[in-house]
Amino acid sequence: MRNAKGNTKARGASHRWKVLGVGVAANASFAAAFSGIPATAVWIRSDYRIDTGTLGLLLGMLGLGIVMSELPWGMLTDRWGDRRVLLTGLGSTAAALIAMTAWCVPQVAHVPGAHALGAGFLAIGLLGGSVNGSSGRAVMAWFGPGERGLAMSIRQTAVPAGAGIGAVMLPALAAHAGFAWVYGTLAALCVLSVILTIAWVREPEGAASRETARAGQHEVPRAHSPLRRVQVWRMVAGIAALCMPQVAVISFASVFLHDFGHAGSAATGAALVAVQFGAACMRVWSGRWTDRRGNRNAYLRACAALSVALFVLLAATTAWFAHAGRFVHALPLDGACIVLIALLVLGGIAASAWHGVAFTELATLAGEGRVGTALAMGNTGAFLAFWLAPSAIPMLLSASGWPAVWFAAAACAALAWPAFARASYPSDAVSQSVALSHKPKGQASPRAAA
């Protein structure tokens, strides 16, 4: 009997990494779309025959769709569970991408209008927004309080990893094969995630019985809705503010380096990949580091301060080069262009390294049974930035130039610093108390209770 229990625990400990793998795959497949499509901005502008202002509005539709759908998907996740929401969202996103492959690809005889392209991008955002809260809820359910920062940070690496895949694959596909291959490749990634979800995602053993006991005996009260928690909203505001410089880099780095720096497509792609790879590494490291030290809020404030410094430096450098006329006859990859690429990469990493830590803290603040809603709130704030930034940057660029764009990014990062004020209690202590309060009698490990 004891061996049977040990084998069950071992299988559960092994299976949680499969669940985490599904979360990574699901987020990566969607990130390849919402971050990879903007990497093809130059080709969208030329193939669909639109100007830069229209391009910004269209790219903003991706973020708008996610903003509109995140909270409903998150609340549905708390009611339906992660598996059903993941399958519904990923399957419908694949269907939307297949529809775009069939009806929204520019051809010699016909170029789809901006309205059709915007509707397609909006649909991708509306449907794909399902993966964030549902995959996060699954990870929080399977991992204990001493590992959630690491696990959530690994899950969050899917965003830069997927974006990096998109930055490598999609511009090349757009340039040499056309947008049918762009949308078809993204659809295939979503279908693969559906298959993995069917195979591996399920509730951890004992979760249903604990929920029944909680509901029937009222031993552990259900947490208050995060929608009525000031502390949760403050964290959401900080997430939204610090996402603005990140989105500025993701959405317009290719245009900046092409138009201002005269960098080639290879250098631009390498810069975007460096941002995403660096952010992925930093997210994994920061999750483990903050798990050990219980200092999530301090780490978040440090990321905000570093982002301010780097984007101010990027703005000042850009202004100096513009004033000196340095790029009127610039050659690709000369010393000045390398400086700009380095500052852009470092700023992009600093503005992207904190996601796993922030969302772990947000889920911890929300409490038992409210993780899906809280993560959806955070993602709504994040993707509000994905909607606003691409729409605002062309107007700011037209009025004041690239230095103003990067100064505005620094100002947004500065707004995040006070939002990440120290919690009124240690995050890890709260995680531990939640885990222990839900631990069935006789259970030895808080990890198993998760």
Give helix and strand order, one letter per element, not per position.
HHHHHHHHHHHHHHHHHHHH
Helix count from the secondary structure assignment: 20
Mean pLDDT: 83
What composes the largest sheet?
Answer: none
Kindly name the structural category: mainly alpha
Structural overview:
This protein is mainly α. Helices cover 81% and strands 0% of the residues. It has 20 helices and no strands. The chain has helices at 2-34, 36-39, 41-47, 52-80, 82-103, 114-128, 130-142, 148-156, 158-176, 179-200, 207-217, 230-259, 265-293, 296-324, 335-350, 355-366, 371-400, 402-419, 427-437, 446-449. Helix 7 (130-142) packs antiparallel against helix 8, helix 9 (158-176) runs antiparallel to helix 10 and helix 12 (230-259) packs antiparallel against helix 16 (355-366). The chain is globular, with a radius of gyration of 22 Å. It starts with a helix and ends with a helix. Mean pLDDT is 83; it is low at 208-220 and 424-450.
How would you briefly describe this protein structure?
The chain has 450 residues and is mostly helical.
Question: What layout of secondary structure does this protein have?
Answer:
Blueprint: H1 2-34, H2 36-39, H3 41-47, H4 52-80, H5 82-103, H6 114-128, H7 130-142, H8 148-156, H9 158-176, H10 179-200, H11 207-217, H12 230-259, H13 265-293, H14 296-324, H15 335-350, H16 355-366, H17 371-400, H18 402-419, H19 427-437, H20 446-449
Helix pairs in contact: 1-7, 1-8, 1-9, 1-10, 4-5, 4-6, 4-7, 4-17, 5-6, 5-7, 5-10, 7-8, 7-17, 8-13, 8-16, 9-10, 9-13, 12-13, 12-15, 12-16, 12-17, 12-18, 13-15, 14-15, 14-18, 16-17, 17-18
